[in-house]
Amino acid sequence: LEYFEKKQKEMEESRRERGLESADFLDLYTYSLIYVNDDEIPELVMDSGVSAGGAVILTCGNGQVDEWMALRCNFDYIERGNQIHNPGGLMGTYYDRIAAIENGVWTDVAEGNYGDPPEGVVQDEEGNFVYEYFWEEEPVTEQGYAERLNAVYDTKKAVDPERWYIGEELVSILRTGDTLSADHRYELAVEDGSWSQAEERCREKGGSLAAVTCFEELERIQAQIEAEN
User: Fold this and answer.
1) Are 101 and 59 in contact (CB under 8 A)?
2) CB atoms inside a 10 Å sphere around CB 200
3) What is the CB neighbour count within 10 angstroms for residue 209?
4) Closest by alpha carbon to 29, among 165, 229, 227?
5) Is residue 73 predicted with pLDDT exceeding 90?
6) 164-168 long-range CB contacts below 8 Å, 24 or more apart?
7) Contact 49, 72 (CB under 8 A)
8) 45: burial class by Cβ within 10 Å (0-12, 13-18, 19+)?
9) Sign of the dihedral through C-alpha 159, 160, 165, 170
């Protein structure tokens, strides 16, 4: 939460200097909680939703927050295996970056890159692109590149984040340990009507028309629908 407050102030100052209106830092991203290393504190993913903006993964250790940038939003990780992988690239230049957490901070483990040769785009007789491959700046074959990558990062164990949250849901989880809708109760009605009519009927009953804002709320509503047949 202190991190968000700091970033909000930095963003407001930057926008003020450029003559722009204020904006909410939390609303710029969607969020996920993942476990990269094996401690009890999850890492926090901040996904910008656009390739150029990338994704920031925060880790907290030794009383500090450290950032790691996943270029172009692409990343996967080995859960509790202390490895995270950022593959990606654009227009003939591609990469694989691998990092880990050591003493509470992100540390680069290995990196490879591949792309078009100096003479430009090359294709073989079957129309496949022919790239030059480098691992830690050492020239390797395509097979050698794959072997080096899998030697330091077992791609078969890689997973992606499963659950994403909007900013206000994330803040609720950080403050209370649960989502905003944790204490909500639901009444199901099957009848014809417009959205505005449904909203009015819900208000007449002292509630509001449900707006599902997280996976946990969706699961509770689905379970109730099934239970009530």
Assistant:
1) yes
2) 13
3) 12
4) 165
5) no
6) 164/30, 164/31, 164/32, 164/47, 164/215, 165/30, 165/31, 165/32, 165/214, 166/27, 166/30, 166/31, 166/213, 166/214, 167/24, 167/26, 167/27, 167/29, 167/31, 168/26, 168/213
7) no
8) buried
9) positive
What share of the chain has pLDDT > 90, as a percent?
A: 82
Residue 69's pLDDT band (cuts 50, 70, 90): very high
- How many Cα atoms are found within 13 Å in the side-chain-facing hemisphere of 172? 14
What letter represents residue 5's amino acid? E
88, containing H or E segment:
strand 83-90
CB-based burial label for 165 (10 Å; 0-12, 13-18, 19+): buried
d(C-alpha 74, C-alpha 3), whole Å? 23
Sheet bearing 105-115, strands edge to edge:
76-78, 83-90, 93-102, 105-115, 132-135, 138-140
**For the segment 115-168, what is each residue's pLDDT rounded down to a tens digit?**
999 888 888 888 888 999 999 999 999 999 999 999 999 999 999 999 999 999
Cβ atoms of 29 and 167 closer than 8 Å:
yes
pTM recorded for the entire structure: 0.86
pLDDT one-digit tens code per residue, 214-228: 999 999 999 999 999
Token readout for 159 is: 């997973």
Indicate whether 91 pLDDT > 90.
no
Quote the pLDDT of residue 228. 94
